[in-house]
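SAMPLE LOG
Freezer: B-3
Tube label: C17
Construct: single chain, 245 aa
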Amino acid sequence: MDVLYYFMTGFIIGGIGTFIGGLISIMVHKPSDRTISGMLSFAAGIMLSIVSFDLMPEAYEIGGFFIVTLGLTIGLLIVFIAEKILPSPKLNRYKGKKLSYIKMSLIIMISMSLHNFPEGIAVGSSAVYSENLGLKIAFLIAAHDIPEGMSVGVPLAMAGLSPKKVILLTLLTGLPTAFGAVCGAALGGISKYFIAFCLSAAASSMLYVSANELIPEANILHRGKSNAVALLIGFVCGCYLSFAM
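STRUCTURE (predicted):
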């Protein structure tokens, strides 16, 4: 097995969608509070739909109640631990809102990593079975990752990071897909219970970020019906991508 080939393939597949999402995030020049609020609500809607129609149903179907409950619990604990660890010396130069946006984005990256690893497994194992099937799944995953890249990139852009750093950090969320692709190709698929655990852990962390970070921050910045509209649009977009998968 060509490890480098599957690693690079997984990284490109996982990174191209988030890269496009990152580009979209930095295209908005000096956005108003209302615009930022709408973008955060849109990202929250996407995450909620992915949890509702993608992660949780699949996790329950392949893992059952016990594995999903364990994954939900561990996923939440991972986020709690990450919140304690994140105020590191490297973040000391960011204050107030900027620091909160940085922390928000890093937690979302952790959520995406838990989600993207099983996606990489799907790419690697399907490519070994059938090259055409692998290409189809790869295309769908890349499209699926565009709004996820936006959910990572928007808070980073709001924190004032340079476009290069925003793009680099959104690209890094493709690494778990790369590792998953190698594992999937090597093993022809990993234990279904492990995959269900990863999916439910990702669902738990995404729910926490949406409910505790994105939506409250959006309402602080701007109170109005536009937030609800943006949330609904994001939810519908996420639904479409989930069913396309």
